[in-house]
Here is the input.
Amino acid sequence: MHSKPVTALPGSAESPAAVVPSRPTVEELFLAHGNFVWRSLRQLGVTAADLEDVVQEVFIVAYRRYDSWNGDAPRAWLFAIARKRASMYRRRGHRLHEQLAADELPEKGRESDPSVRLDLERLDRALATLDEDKRSVFILHEIESLPMREVAAAVGCSLHAAYARLHAARRGLLRAVSEEP
Amino acid sequence: MNPENFGLPPLTDEEASTLERLVRAGRSRAMSSETSKRIARRLAETGASSQMGWKGGAASRGLSRAVSGAKMGAILACLGMTVFGWHQVSRNAGDESANRPALEAGEAKASGVASMVPSVPMRVGAGAPSTTTPPTETSSVEIEALPSIGAASAGAAYPLATDPVRPTPRPPQRATAPAAVSVRPSPARSPSGAAPSSSAPEPSPVSAAPSPSDARALSGGAPSSAARPSEATTEEFALIRRAQAALASDPVRALAIADEHAHAFPDGEFVQERELTAIEALARLGRKTEARRRADEFLARFPRTPYAGRLERAR
Here is the structure.
């Protein structure tokens, strides 16, 4: 059938086993980066109640577009899809799930800690004041620790512009936080 | 020029600490294992699983064999657990008998697969990443029983009762995995299918069973969770999910929902998923000529579709 050249990945050199260099499958992407997509979507403004659906959308789109992915920078690739889905989501103007039962909070762990939850609420409110470009750079670099070069590629701007956005995002977030009562 | 600061004053300590605090909170977000299981299962049901490619797409697309070996082992292990521990709950006796042959085929296949799994529990450690990205993702998805992806190969992957497909499972390998995946055996589930989740009344035990009638459990209007306002949304993806959920039990309805989608979202993001569902529905209804024609149109329009294998089976 359609044979494709297998992408040689630098990371494979570190592998002790004789592993055929290859791209991760969509399940592997989900296992490795599901939480990354989850966090990113949430911080791109998808409400907790709808997060699950939108995460699923992202990975279905990823599955379908898998062939067009060059195998590099999986998180940057997934983020580009997530950003688009989140943007569509915000434009819908309505939420799929209007409310969430109290015992059904899809988030876990430290978020049950009230102070962390408070911080998360502040973070989300502050992020919401940023435009999508700045928000994306902040999420990818600050929260997800992606190198700036990869961030720039993910959001489709120059490295210089990415730094400018990062700086503006930091200032914007601090302003938003400080203006809160 | 230092690109980092643009000549602007650096953050004060207090500002930096405020940001750090928010960032740390943001990083702490993660799915619960219940949630990740649900999503994995839904992905499988929708078909976004490379295991679809056992017969078709993925294998020919040069996907990973070795790298996915370890995880494949985990998935197969869980598939085995799924079959052994969970019991199909029939919600519709009529459909049950209709789907029985395929169910048996699925079970036979699944047990065969399970027998290839050497040991449960197994742990797939954080091996060399198969990507170019440094493994900074610390919180890999936590899945405790992976009923979902297992169900993919058994149920969603072979949706046609008339066409049970033999799998070609690969032996599990202790190869490297792209991320730390910890797979633990699920506590024994009661055979009656007691809900393993404390969350919404989702039919997860049901859909874990390898049968095309699984989807019935998800149908009946609600996309998959009783927590949502069923039928209340015309949102694109919700329509696709409803159509897919109806496929096994009520292909006529699946077809109708697919038509609804075609009218509402002629150029939507999920056109391929809609067409696939419609074609499978036609095949189930025995409308083979229409199914074939529509499949041909699909392939002409999306020659690189990852769903080629499923289309082939539906023809």
Summary: The radius of gyration of chain A is 18 Å. The mean pLDDT of chain A is 82. Residues 159-179 of chain A form the longest helix (21 residues).
